[in-house]
């Protein structure tokens, strides 16, 4: 099931979206997520879904891949929407039992929650699918750079983020190996009640932590031997370049915002 | 226990952009109580293959038979437990899986999971610790206080304690020094003889293949490209080289001697075989 | 010849250990020499080379690298002279891609970006990994990762390269690629001093001199030939016997002539050929 989940994955490629500057993509995605909350009537939803459809087209990946990839999360969205549905008072009451009720306002808000959630998750998926983790880290650093004024350790944070991202696949591999080893010793990770499942996690977590601490120790030694003395006076190998396409992307999202505001009042 | 692979295919993450072939139409038989080596490059499919031996992976199509147990795409996880118990797996760097507070409890972890009573599990743990040569005084210690070599023995005892009939070893000597390697390989040979185990060894050490294996399977690009006795596998040095594999040291040395005019009936694989075949081609001592 | 490393009476005990890991060690290494340190696991080899780089805080003895006595004040200067490759290929890969990892040391040294780009490319070409510059480490083999680690060091152009069991976790092919990079480097203009810890006899045989460690002590040193001919020493320190020695032993078992002294594999081959001709 989790193998199908696409949020957080990166698929290397050369689409127009892949080539955008990560700063542009981060701004674009965040901006889109904020204005997703400006949706009101069906026209605004059509606009936003049409836009995200266009964005998916630009990733060069198939629609069905997105549909299947978001599949595992759909239940989370449905669950949230149902909570909204059952606990929102106001408007015409169709049904109620104790504190639970279904009202006309409830139907409206839960529909809105459902659709906005879907927009947001799709956009976040597009961002991670088309942007390498390292590029996201670079983008975040660049966008955080103004915070240096208030002595926020931007460079250290960026290095930490990039090292952490670098070790995610290594630790996932290790977790898989340890799980296999313990399954071979008779552990059932997906069987039994809550207590049994929690107990099954101990033989996974302890070796994983011991291993990670060992790795961290090795890494610190290697970094020190390579002359890392903190973030001062370092130069940077990787620099980001802003292209015309990035400016176009930002203009497009601004136009989307304007059209959205107009449609809200129609 | 005999093992049979019958047209086994395995696909990683089918129907996604990450789809990849793991095994492609692999068929072979491992006789009961034999010693089989699996060789091939990193990424050739060796690990994927051995994970089918105890059902950690299930074939996408085809059948794996271990004794009377059949593993197919349809086998449910519930039925895998007896397979897990009968096929013990020692992964690469197995010391990385230790977790319990004492050596004794870590070794007993498998038997307890397989339904032995606490008493039985402890007795099995002590027996397994003895079999791998761990001194009794270490049993109450924390496994994390031991040396690397001792930790590895604890992990191996943890697999043996469940009394498997098949022992799968994935590069069990990686990272050990030469003496540690030799001791560990001798230990596996003894375990196999004493407990009538079927042993499957994944290795890059061609000398171990020559010294210990009854048969070898050569994997490349998810395919089984050759199966036979070590003598058959290494008989064609050109082919071995083309697969970017090495010859056993003695075979390689013998190859050099062939170019110098020595003659061998079959390519010697060990120093002993080489010396025997050099009789009649060298003067006797004291002449 | 100029001394590039001098170690004098170095001792060290880990805080929670019951005996010293390094016990009164003294030796010298000449500039441009290739020296291998051998000994069984736990004999103190890794601790010794870490001491050279100031990665452990020893209290007793002195270490002098390229004329600089190692001290808390001089440690960063000493580290500029030494490039280290460690055992585990995964745990020393800092960068998110191959090129980023090679650049890490250069970034720390504050090398300007155009110069950095040039040196990253040259170093990656030297280890034959330039075509993988944008790859992530999870998609590389162990041997490729170790070559990237070597490139990270070559880019810094240190006078000493220390390999702390850098090939012990690699398959034979990976090990061979790393060793051929080292041999190539030895023939280049830089010709760095190489200090390698290894269990592998064929790797040790490439060194000009071996230091043998046992139980925290330096128990012997000499040419590979001198060390390899001492069967007792090899066995007591947990090392393998050279193949030529094993074959000679088997020949003796068959009642055949054997050479009177230690021969390398190539020499034994010649010797057998000569004996064969006398038949």
Automatic annotation (TrEMBL), chain A:
Annotated membrane topology: Multi-pass membrane protein
InterPro entries for this protein: ABC/ECF_trnsptr_transmembrane, EcfT
Assigned GO CC terms: plasma membrane
Broad class of the protein's primary localization: membrane
Pfam family, one: CbiQ
Cited CDD domains: EcfT (cd16914)
Segments passing through the bilayer: 26-43, 74-95, 115-137, 149-168, 242-263
Keyword NAD applies: no
Protein's job: Transmembrane (T) component of an energy-coupling factor (ECF) ABC-transporter complex. Unlike classic ABC transporters this ECF transporter provides the energy necessary to transport a number of different substrates.
Protein family: Belongs to the energy-coupling factor EcfT family.
HAMAP family, A to Z: EcfT (MF_01461)
Official protein name in the record: Energy-coupling factor transporter transmembrane protein EcfT
Gene from which the chain derives: ecfT
Automatic annotation (TrEMBL), chain B:
Database matches in CDD domains: ABC_cobalt_CbiO_domain1 (cd03225)
Enzyme class, UniProt record, top EC level: translocase
An annotated GO cellular component: ATP-binding cassette (ABC) transporter complex
Ranges for domain ABC transporter: 3-246
Enzyme Commission number(s) of this protein: 7.-.-.-
Protein known as: Energy-coupling factor transporter ATP-binding protein EcfA2
Function: ATP-binding (A) component of a common energy-coupling factor (ECF) ABC-transporter complex.
InterPro entries per UniProt: AAA+_ATPase, ABC_transporter-like_ATP-bd, ABC_transporter-like_CS, ABC_transpr_CbiO/EcfA_su, ECF_ABC_transporter_ATP-bd, EcfA2, P-loop_NTPase
Membrane topology: Peripheral membrane protein
GO molecular function: ATP binding; ATP hydrolysis activity; ATPase-coupled transmembrane transporter activity
Protein species of origin: Furfurilactobacillus rossiae
Family: Belongs to the ABC transporter superfamily. Energy-coupling factor EcfA family.
Self-association and partners: Forms a stable energy-coupling factor (ECF) transporter complex composed of 2 membrane-embedded substrate-binding proteins (S component), 2 ATP-binding proteins (A component) and 2 transmembrane proteins (T component).
Annotated keywords: ATP-binding, Cell membrane, Membrane, Nucleotide-binding, Translocase, Transport
Annotated compartments: Cell membrane
From TrEMBL, chain C:
SMART domains: AAA
Boundaries of every ABC transporter domain copy: 5-240
Location in the cell: Cell membrane
Membrane topology: Peripheral membrane protein
SUPFAM superfamilies in alphabetical order: P-loop containing nucleoside triphosphate hydrolases
One family name in Pfam for this protein: ABC_tran
Annotated keywords: ATP-binding, Cell membrane, Membrane, Nucleotide-binding, Translocase, Transport
Source species, domain of life: Bacteria
A GO term, aspect molecular function: ATP binding
NCBIfam families in alphabetical order: ECF_ATPase_1, PRK13635.1, PRK13648.1
Family: Belongs to the ABC transporter superfamily.
Protein name: Energy-coupling factor ABC transporter ATP-binding protein
């Amino acid at each position: 099931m989790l193998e199908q989940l696409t949020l957080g994955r990166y698929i290397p490629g050369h689409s127009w979206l892949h080539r955008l500057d990560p700063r542009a993509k981060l701004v674009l995605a965040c901006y889109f997520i904020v204005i997703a909350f400006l949706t009101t009537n069906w026209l605004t939803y059509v606009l936003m879904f049409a836009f995200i459809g266009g964005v998916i087209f630009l990733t060069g990946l198939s629609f069905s891949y997105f549909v299947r990839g978001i599949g595992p999360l759909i239940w989370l969205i449905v669950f949230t929407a149902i909570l909204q549905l059952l606990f929102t008072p106001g408007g015409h009451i169709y049904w109620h039992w104790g504190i639970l009720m279904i009202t006309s306002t409830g139907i409206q808000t839960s529909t809105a929650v459902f659709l906005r959630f879907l927009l947001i998750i799709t956009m976040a998926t597009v961002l991670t699918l088309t942007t390498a983790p390292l590029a996201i880290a670079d983008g975040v650093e660049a966008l955080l750079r103004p915070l240096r004024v208030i002595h926020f350790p931007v460079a250290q944070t960026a290095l930490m983020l990039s090292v952490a991202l670098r070790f995610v696949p290594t630790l996932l591999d290790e977790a898989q190996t340890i799980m296999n080893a313990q399954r071979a010793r008779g552990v059932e990770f997906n069987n039994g009640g809550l207590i049994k499942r929690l107990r099954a996690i101990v033989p996974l977590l302890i070796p994983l932590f011991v291993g990670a601490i060992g790795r961290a120790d090795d890494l610190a030694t290697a970094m020190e031997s390579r002359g890392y003395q903190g973030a001062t006076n370092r130069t940077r190998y990787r620099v980001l370049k802003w292209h015309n396409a990035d400016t176009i992307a930002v203009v497009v999202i601004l136009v989307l915002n304007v059209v959205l505001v107009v449609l809200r009042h129609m | 226990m005999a093992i049979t692979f019958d047209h086994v295919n395995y696909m990683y993450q089918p129907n996604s952009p990450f789809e990849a072939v793991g095994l492609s139409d692999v068929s072979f038989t491992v006789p009961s109580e034999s010693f089989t080596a699996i060789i091939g490059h990193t990424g050739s499919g060796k690990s994927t293959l051995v994970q089918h031996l105890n059902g950690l992976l299930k074939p996408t199509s085809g059948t794996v038979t271990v004794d009377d147990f059949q593993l197919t795409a349809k086998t449910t996880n519930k039925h895998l437990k007896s397979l897990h118990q009968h096929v013990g797996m020692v992964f690469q760097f197995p010391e990385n899986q230790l977790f319990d507070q004492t050596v004794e409890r870590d070794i007993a972890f498998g038997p307890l999971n397989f339904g032995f009573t606490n008493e039985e599990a402890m007795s099995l743990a002590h027996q397994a610790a003895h079999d791998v040569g761990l001194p009794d005084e270490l049993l109450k210690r924390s496994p994390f206080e031991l040396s690397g070599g001792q930790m590895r023995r604890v992990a191996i005892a943890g697999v043996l304690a469940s009394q498997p009939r098949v022992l799968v070893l994935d590069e069990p000597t990686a990272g050990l020094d030469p003496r540690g390697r030799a001791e560990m390989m001798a230990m596996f040979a003894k375990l196999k003889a004493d407990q009538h185990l079927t042993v499957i060894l994944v290795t890059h050490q061609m000398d171990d293949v020559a010294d210990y294996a009854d048969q070898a399977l050569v994997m490349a690009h998810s395919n089984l490209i050759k199966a036979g006795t070590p003598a058959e596998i290494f008989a064609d040095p050109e082919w071995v080289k083309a697969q970017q594999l090495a010859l056993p040291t003695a075979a390689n040395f013998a190859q050099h001697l062939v170019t110098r005019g020595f003659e061998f009936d079959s390519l010697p694989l060990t120093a002993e075989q080489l010396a025997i075949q050099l009789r009649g081609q060298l003067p006797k001592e004291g002449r | 010849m100029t001394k590039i490393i001098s170690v004098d009476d170095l001792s060290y005990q880990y805080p929670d250990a019951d005996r010293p890991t390094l016990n009164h060690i003294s030796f010298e290494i000449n500039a441009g020499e290739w020296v291998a340190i051998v000994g069984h696991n736990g004999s103190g080899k890794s601790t010794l080379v870490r001491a050279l780089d100031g990665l452990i805080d020893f209290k007793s003895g002195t270490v002098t690298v390229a004329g600089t006595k190692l001290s808390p004040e001089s440690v960063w200067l000493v580290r500029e002279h030494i490039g280290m490759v460690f055992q585990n290929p995964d745990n020393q890969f800092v960068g998110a891609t191959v090129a980023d990892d090679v650049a890490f040391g250069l970034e720390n040294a504050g090398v300007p970006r155009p110069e950095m780009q040039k040196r990253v490319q040259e170093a990656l070409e030297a280890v034959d990994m330039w075509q993988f510059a944008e790859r992530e480490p999870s998609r590389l083999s162990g041997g490729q990762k170790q070559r990237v680690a070597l490139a990270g060091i070559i880019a810094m152009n240190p006078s000493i390269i220390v390999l702390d069991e850098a090939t012990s976790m690699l398959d034979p092919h990976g090990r061979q690629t790393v060793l051929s990079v080292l041999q190539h480097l030895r023939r280049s203009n830089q010709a760095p001093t190489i200090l390698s810890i290894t269990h592998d006899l064929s790797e040790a045989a490439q060194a000009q001199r071996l230091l043998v460690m046992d139980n925290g002590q330096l128990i012997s040193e000499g040419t590979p030939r001198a060390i390899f001919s001492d069967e007792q020493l090899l066995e007591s320190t947990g090392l393998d016997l050279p193949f030529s020695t094993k074959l000679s032993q088997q020949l003796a078992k068959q009642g055949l002539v054997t050479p009177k002294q230690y021969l390398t594999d190539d020499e034994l081959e010649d010797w057998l050929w000569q004996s064969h001709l006398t038949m």
